[in-house]
Amino acid sequence: MRRFFRPLPLAIGSGVALLLYALVGFFLLPYLITTYAVPKVAETIRHPVAVREVAVNPFELSLRITGLEIRESDQTPMVGFEEFFVNFQAVSLFRLAYVFDAIRLTMPYVAAKVAPNGHLNVLDLVPQGAPDDQLPPAKAQEHPGAIPAVQIGVFEITQGIVEFRDESKPKPVAIDIVPIGIVLRNFHTKPGGDNTYSFSAELGKGEVLDWKGTITLEPIRSEGALVLSGVRIPTIFQYVQGQFNFDIPTGTIDAKVPYRLDMGVAPMDCIVSEASLHLSDVGLVEKGSVDPVISVPSFRIDGIQVDLRQHTVSIASVGLADASDRVWLNPDKSLNLQALFAPAESGPVAEKAPPKTTPKESAKESSPWSVAVKDVQIKNHTIRFEDRSLPSTMQAKVVVRSARSHDLAWPIKGPIPLTVDQTINDTGTFALDGQMVVSPFQADFTLALKNLGLAPFEPYLEQATRVGIDDGSLDVDGSFHLAVEHPKAPLMTFRGNLGVKSLALVNREEGLPVVSWKHLLLKQIALTVDPTTVSLAEVGLDQLRVQLAVQSDGTMNLAHLVKAQKETEVKSAPAPEPPPGKSKPAPDIAIKTVKLTNGAVIFQDDSISPTVRTGLEELSGTVKGLSSKQVAKADVDLSGKLGRVAPLRVVGKINPLSENAFTDISVKFDNIDLTTAGPYSGKYVGYPIRKGKLFLDLAYKLSQHELEAENKVLIDQLGFGEKTESPDATSLPVPLVVALLKDRKGQIAIDLPVRGNLKDPDFKYGKLLLNTVLNLLGKAVTSPFALIGSLVGGSGEELQAIEFAPGRSDLSAVETKKLMTLVTVLTERPALSLDVTGMADTHVDARVLAEDQFLERLRRFKLEETGKPAGKEPAPVLSPEDESRLTTAWYAKQFPPVAGPPDVPPLSVHEMKGRLLQTIAVDEGQLRLLAQRRAEGIREWLTQQGKIEEARVFILEAGFKDGSGTTVSAALAMAAR
Predict the structure, then answer these.
(1) pTM for this structure?
(2) What is the pLDDT, as a whole number, of residue 904?
(3) Nearest Cα to 774, choosing from 714, 721, 828, 731?
């Protein structure tokens, strides 16, 4: 032994031992690893394993393995690395710790693949143990030991690669993470160590995940920052895209999360401070589409503070800038965003049992989280909206130039402030400023809407009307209040103004104007709901223009504006009748002033030739004091011009808003030129109007549903042209009617009163007025003398005939008085002429004429007795004795005596006279002459005593009748000159 410890043997022994140590380290260990360990591992995991080189340096206590690959059964690489190097320090024997100078892994890679059946290939690398029924019974869990002492100078992974493929999804998912880098310096598992670490990875070019900080394991504490830079959202979203109905083809995430974690205290402490999340160029599209529905160029959340123990989240600012949305309403009235964000359809998912919670966790959950947001801003956010449920798509563009709220908190306790500034369709602006309370909901805002164009909203009118909007804009400004719970106040109030400028409505199909105005302004609106009240200081309407037209088919243009309901359309269900009980009070409405300025109503009739065109223009005036209160009466004062010449004036009091409407109003039209109505007159009257003026004085009184209407009409200097051959012309003798109504000044005055109760179902004002006019015209035709009776204070019927004594043509005093009355009528009606028909009665007049001839013959007999020639001497006067003597002599000569029965008594003088009268024949000529004398006598009196122009009195052909009265009438008839 002594020899062995001598220097030379000791050196030789040491050299041999060192040589053996070197041989084992440099050659034997690599051989054993390559020859035995690697196949054993391959057998255990049942996958091919290949190693290019294994090197051991026993002097540095280092191991280097290069070119390790674990392959699939088809020899494709699954897991591996280019180089693994570990350097163990011998000092570990003295420090009672595992001390490594360096552990380095170069170009590790994992090719993870999920098969269509959902199986992950890397799980096959886990060694399979014995079946469950052959496993040894589990031992009771022992108290875990302390963490072994480990020290690593540098732990580094460089250029790592992870290739992930998931073929179980409807659309296969591919994610490549390269390169991956991890650096851990001065790592200690025991307390007191300053373990710094850094982790970085690239999910794609420029997509960087960086994690740096410090960490200790006993207890676990860490402080650092997680940073995402340029990470593409599609890279992450593709793995979950099957759960959504949209895709995210673009977008990046930048995030910074500084944190501090301490698991050595209970409950665990985790604080995130000054974190931020930025999204850039995010686009959401419908599946299968390329145009984004939502585009978010910039979304930022800054100043995020999270305290896990206190359950608080604080955010300094949330900002959204330059975003744009495409929103549309589908034909079924559903919103596209509803389907876009609805959960994607998937197979049935088994219900999971709710996780069990410990009492400590339950207590933790009982402490609610609170969230506070200092500032929220939206800038330049564009919303393009389309309503595709309409016959024509309505399109609108809203640009939120600025929207801001601040000092938000969850749970929500106080009011939420909100300020909005936006444009609508490039021309309109909308500003909103105020606050709202969530529970119970309450909102208080001031708003200002200016110059909102109405034309883009025309499609909403297409379903029920043919109204088109050529121009027009809306202005609204005021304050708005809404409170769901309002025991002592209205549900909603609005105070402000509303205006519609430059409105122009047309018939969409024909392009013809219907209604327009320059400005409609409702000033100082005070509106409340529940209870409902409306108060306005002024309603101003400037340059209103209404176009009324009768089209060529005879229908009004306004009748074509509303579409008729088709039979195939489903009618809406009738509204349910309110339950019996106390009805709601009528709204309280008050309008201080309604002001009309320079209005016009234009009328055109294309159904008649030539076309009629006229209108009311320069309509201006006020209605003051409109109110729904029963006792209120509004003052009306309106004026205008018909045809730019004839003045119109409407004055009075009305109360149309009350339950029992009241009206006491007068309407006056002066100097209306009737030639405008010439085409109507030519078509329906048969004579075109060539001259005339119309004056109307109308008075209407309505109270307690009782109507009293006075319609006074004055027509001045009415004149007709030549008669037309219109098939629509009336059969009435129009010239006669006009002549009967026109006075000596050339005026026609008509008074048409109308009375009735509006609640009477048979009362129709228009129909009643028309019937009154028709009765007047009918009376003029059938009883013209009755019509003009008002001129002489009688019925006028007695003027239609002049009575004469039988056989006589002289006028009695009574009949002369009638003629005097008739002179008055003809003087007042200079357009009338008088037709006189002399009449003779073939019975009464013939008898008197026969008696006259009988007496004339007796006088001739007496002259013969005296020997005086007839015709030279005046007719002698016959005494009764003369009549008896001459009658007896004439009878004896006319009827010689014949022998007869002696007992027949002789005839009396009277009987002789009767028999002689039978022998006297009165022919038609004598009767006609009598009738003519009567007619001429009437004419002579009227023209001479009455001073009536001879040209106005016409004698018609004599007439005959057979009567038995005490007088004979000469018929008079009115005619137009």
Answers:
(1) 0.73
(2) 62
(3) 731
